[in-house]
Specification:
CATH class of the largest domain: Mainly Alpha
Largest sheet: 2 strands, antiparallel
Number of helices: 8
Strand content: under 5%
Number of domains: 2
Order of helices and strands: HHEEHHHHHH
Shape: globular
Structural class: mainly alpha
CATH superfamily of the largest domain: GntR ligand-binding domain-like
Number of strands: 2
CATH topology of the largest domain: Four Helix Bundle (Hemerythrin (Met), subunit A)
CATH architecture of the largest domain: Up-down Bundle
Length: 204
């Protein structure tokens, strides 16, 4: 509810209501909220509780370029995927083409990127990628709800798969870095517009 944007940026997290809605006790809920705070999705204010952090251009510009470093390195370590994995990646990309719901689109895109680097032996690196996926999800969802456009990502995925099918790992890594830029550009422009009009709380 926090990561997917159902709780508005800047709003206070009502632990009692959230516990009831999720059907879990307060202790595991609080542990989860603390983890989300550590990952940057929440802010903790003494004697006030947890608050959903606003979406800001400054934070996004610090977060997203890290993915452009992590993902290509994970692919380099994983090596050229097997034919079976490449087929799975193509199937995910086709499914992405036919998906309209913003949350499902981002979930499929994340699944595609994780499948791409599945063979990476460095599990800490993969965990970092997953962490930064969670940190950027709120931004991606907020943008997608206003401007649904995934064609650039789909075409970028196809180019990466083409390089890998020809055995060009270095080329695929370079294209993956470019893919990160394609993904960040529209979000940066959108955040600039929102901040210029005073809309900095992450709500449409």
């Amino acid at each position: 509810m926090i990561v997917d944007g159902r709780l508005a940026a800047g709003s206070r997290v009502n632990e009692v209501h959230l516990s009831a809605a999720l059907g879990i006790s307060r202790t595991p809920l609080r542990e989860a909220l603390i983890r989300l705070a550590a990952e940057g999705a929440l802010t903790i204010l003494p004697r006030s509780g947890f608050f959903v952090r606003p979406l800001t251009l400054d934070e996004f510009r610090q977060i997203y370029p890290i993915r452009a470093v992590l993902d290509p390195e994970a692919l380099r370590l994983a090596g050229v995927p097997t034919r079976k994995r490449l087929d799975r990646l193509e199937a995910l990309n086709r499914k992405l083409q036919d998906t309209a719901d913003p949350g499902d689109v981002i979930g499929l895109d994340d699944a595609w990127h994780l499948e791409l680097v599945h063979g990476c032996p460095n599990r800490i690196l993969i965990a970092l990628i997953e962490q930064f996926m969670r940190r950027t999800r709120r931004y991606e969802l907020a943008l997608m709800r206003e401007r649904h456009n995934v064609q650039g990502s789909i075409q970028s995925h196809e180019a990466i798969l083409g390089a890998l099918r020809s055995g060009d790992l270095d080329g695929a890594c370079a294209l993956l870095r470019r893919n990160m830029g394609i993904g960040s550009g529209p979000i940066v422009s959108w955040l600039e517009e929102r901040e210029a009009t005073g809309r900095t709380r992450g709500e449409p």
